[in-house]
Amino acid sequence: MHSSYDLEPIVELANWSVYEVPLYGIDAPWTRHFVGFAEELGLAQVSSAIVMFDQEHGFGASASHRVFQLVGVSGTHQEGTRLWSKWKTLNDIHHERDITAHFSKAQRTWRQPIAATPQ
Question: How far apart are CA 47 and CA 58, in angstroms?
């Protein structure tokens, strides 16, 4: 039996970063998001909340069931930065933490419980 994560194609992100934001409010647990550029697609990407990350293999899964493979070293891409700014504006985000360094260190796996979507 396959999980729904198995059904989505893997998106390879170059020039990637990881940010933490108060998506559900400043007092709620902050969500983490991949930001980068998918060269195969020719598109900047911002993930939904990261729900799992495997440091050993450099991939993570998002709440939308997309799997992101981090390629190469972290960094920024002009289009990724622009999309991230738009995403923050659309989601009324005024605070962020750049936590990219945590994803570049020897950290085996990381899981965050999926936050309940506000009604």
Answer: 15
Question: pTM score, two decimals?
Answer: 0.82
Domain ranges of the chain: 4-111
Q: Which two tokens stand for residue 84?
A: 């991230």
Rounded to an integer, what distance in angstroms lies between the CA atom of residue 16 and that of residue 4?
24
CB neighbours of 27 closer than 8 A, spacing ≥ 6?
A: none
Residue-wise pLDDT tens digits, 16-50 = 999 999 999 999 999 999 999 999 999 999 999 99
Which region, left, alpha or beta, applies to residue 99 given φ > 0 means left and ψ of -120 to 50 means alpha? alpha
DSSP E strand boundaries for 57-112: 59-62, 67-70, 97-98, 109-111
Look at residues 80, 79, 23, 89 and name the one whose alpha carbon lies nearest to residue 51: 23
